[in-house]
Amino acid sequence: MTRRHGLFGPNAVRIIALVLAVGIAFTVGGPYLIQAGVPLLGVIALSLLVLGVPLLAILRSEKSRR
Hints:
About 80% of the residues lie in helices and about 0% in strands. It is mainly alpha-helical. Helix 1 (about 10-35) runs antiparallel to helix 2 (about 40-65).
């Protein structure tokens, strides 16, 4: 019995990468924006927007390959 995707499946790798990307976005940019007076919900919304653009591009490119 062989494994096709190694230790994790392809979806697990995507989830781990997404969690790491969100963590990096919040820890790098968040404190500076909060210190500048941006409300916490604004920082969260901006971080999700920044992460959402490449995520949507990836999802659209995968749909076009099928």
